Each structure stands twice: as structure tokens, then as C-alpha cells.
Amino acid sequence: MIASSLSWGNPLFQGFFWSAATIGFYLTAKRLYRRWPYWWLMPLAVTPAALIMIVLFLHASYGDYMRGAGWLITLLGPATVAFAVPIYEKRALIRRQWPVLLIGMVAGSATAILSGWGLATLLGLDGTLRLSLLPRSISTPFALEVSQDIGGVPDLTAVFVVMTGVLGAILGEFMLSFLPIRSALARGALLGVGAHGAGTAKAHQIGREEGSIAGLVMVMVGLLNVLAAPFLAYILN
Amino acid sequence: MTTRAFSLRFRRSVHNRRLVQIALLILFWLLGEAVVRLTGLPLPGGIVGMILVLLLLASHRLSLFSLKRGAEWFLAEMLLFFVPAVLAVVDHEELLGLLGLKILLVILGGTIAVMGVTALTVDLCYRWRERDDRVEPLLG
User: Chief location of this protein (chain A) (predicted)?
Assistant: First the structure.
């Protein structure tokens, strides 16, 4: 008992424990999902759920967990760089279809902001909370920038962005199965604009073309929103 | 060994090694971060790194095969890198009650709307363009 509590207090051990638990659950969830592809077995839903239970069970805090496994988030940086490869491979398609994608991104972003504002107002949410919800559909680094610009709370926005990604990757599959969509272009745009990085990872599972379009659109829609943020801030205030 | 033979050997070893390519991608990301720090660009370092790699690929200074296997690994495992961010919910107890339910509804409804509008807009525009492309040669 004493030995185990001693080793538990050791930051090195804790770091190893949380990293190993995260990677272990993720790999297990991936195998399960490959075998039984039900939406509720999606690794992005199962892995955090299991980890949250362990954190609560051990009376650990988010800070404890992040000190151990936070370095994994850092890898989103090089993962973003990796998007250069599929985008470059599909450059002919993108060069041909960029006006279509641009119209889709503008329509999608306008919908994200209007629906966020409208639904929040309808449910009685207001103030900084409502503002923090507006940039939820774009990927985290852009969303934090926009949230700050329009007067939201970047910390809250970060949580909403992740919620949108997780729910969006799951919802995206349903949407794709019943919307009358024929082009890979629209399938990729749906996931890239609707669920940023998580949606893009999902798109890569659906197909190469969908994945590269989602990756491009995710980056472009983020840039578009950062550029539009001062204008949006002007309208809101 | 001549420099040419050496550079060929070096290239071949990079093309076959995923781990080397992963390191190369991390290097480009760090380069992007450094550029952001130095210039104060309002962009994430990863995006700057990506633009850098795209420029190198487009100008044929970098071969696609020096990065392809590493990039495929990053993209396939990307969901893992999102997992720790979800745990932030633990620190926001206020999100667990009615307020959380309301926020969940906003996000669910909003995301369905965004996905529907985006996909239908893109699909519609795409079909118009394809049809116009087919009609044009007949008219011209």
C-alpha cells in the first residue's frame, strides 16, 4: 500500500500512467470500432468517456491529467503540417473547384454563427457564453483567436470546439447517409466545415478525396473566420 | 562515395522510413512556430508549417515521398491528439447540469444546420458547374 501511494505521487509515474491510459484506451477503442462499427463505439467518444471515469474515480483533476498526457495535444501541430500532403495530391481538383468550396465555406460559416446566436437566444443563453459559442465550428487555434476578438471566453470556446468536433464526427455519418449528396466535394466540405479536425479525421476514413477536401476546407474556413472576426465584432457590439 | 550517390542514398532512406518522416514533419511544425514567434503573424504555427511544405512541394524542392508515409500516420491517428482536450469538461462542473444540456442542444442543432447548408450548397454549385461544362462545348 505504502509503496503504491509513493509511486503514485511520483510525477514521472503519473505522466507515464495518463499517457499509457490514453494511448491504450485509444488503441483498444480503435480495434473495437473496426470490428463493430457502431457510432457509440467511435474511438473519439469511447476513449474520453473511459478516461473521464478514471479521472473521477481516482479523484484526480484535469490539471493532473494534462501534466501527464497534454503533450498529445501538441502533436496536432505537426498533424496540421501533414495536411500539406493530401492537399498537394488533390491540387488539380482544388484548383478546378475552389469557387464552389468558397461559396460552401461562406454559407457554412454564416450558418454556424447565425444558428449559434439564434439557438442560444432561444434557450435563454446570453452574454459572453453566447459569444463563446459562435466560433465553435472552426479548429481550436482559429476559434480561440475569433473568440477573443468578439469578446467571448477562449477557455469555454475551446471546450465547445471539442464538443462540436466529437458530436460532428458522429453526426456527420448520419447526415451523409440521408442527405442526397453525390459529390465527394460536398461530403468533404460537410465534415471539414461542420466538425473541423475531428470531422477531417472521419473524412479520411471515408475516402482519400473526402479527406483532402475536408483538410483544405478546415484550414481555409478557419482563416476566413479569423479575417471576418473584426467585422463580426463590429456587428455584435 | 560521391555527393550524388550519397544524396540518392539519403533520399531513399527517407522515402522508406516513417519515423524519419514523422520527425521531418515535427521539424516543419517547429519552423512554423518559430516564424510565428519572430514575425507575430496571427496564425497557428502548424498552418505556417503546412504552407511552407506546400510551397516546397509546389516548387519541387521537396519530394512528396519524403513526407507521404509520415503524413499518413499523423492523419490516421489524429483523433488520439484530440482526446486530452475533451477531458477539459471535468474542470467545468457548470457544464454538467441544465446549462450543459442547453449548450449541447445549441451545438447539436447548430452543427446539423451547418453540415446541411454546407453540403447542399457545395453539391448544388458543383452540379450546376458540371452541367454548364457539358453544355458549353455544344454551344461553342
Answer: membrane
Between chains, do A81 and B90 touch, taking CB under 8 Å as contact? no
**A168 interfacial to chain B (CB closer than 8 Å):** yes
To the nearest whole angstrom, how far is the Cα of A224 from the nearest Cα of chain B?
12
Cβ contacts (< 8 Å) between B64 and chain A: which residues? 85, 88-89
The complex scores an ipTM of 0.83
pLDDT per position as a tens digit, B91-116: 877 777 899 999 999 999 999 999 99
Together in a domain, A107 and A222? yes
CA distance A133 to A138: 11
- The answer on A95 and A40 residing in a single domain is no
Q: Note the pLDDT tens digit of each residue in A203-219.
A: 988 888 898 899 889 98
Rounded CA-CA distance B9/B77 in Å is: 29
Total tally of structural domains belonging to chain A: 2
At residue A145's C-alpha, the angle toward residues A86 and A232, to 5°, is 105
Residues A6, A123, single domain; the answer is: no
Residue A188 shares a structural domain with residue A138: yes
Give backbone dihedrals phi and psi of A187, rounded to 5 degrees, phi first.
-65, -45
Domain that holds residue A141: 81-236
Q: Which A residues in the span 51-70 are in contact with B, Cβ-Cβ below 8 Å?
A: 51-52, 55-56, 61-63, 65-66, 69-70
Contact list in B for residue A92 (CB cut-off 8 A) is: none
- Burial of A31 by CB count in 10 Å (0-12 exposed, 13-18 middle, 19+ buried)? exposed
What percentage of residues in chain A have a pLDDT greater than 70?
Answer: 96
From chain A, the residues in CB contact with B75 under 8 A are 79, 82-83, 86, 201, 204, 211, 215
Query: With contacts defined as CB-CB under 8 Å, which chain A residues touch B60?
Result: none
Q: How far is B2 from chain A (nearest CA, A)?
A: 31
Owner of C-alpha cell 461530403: A187
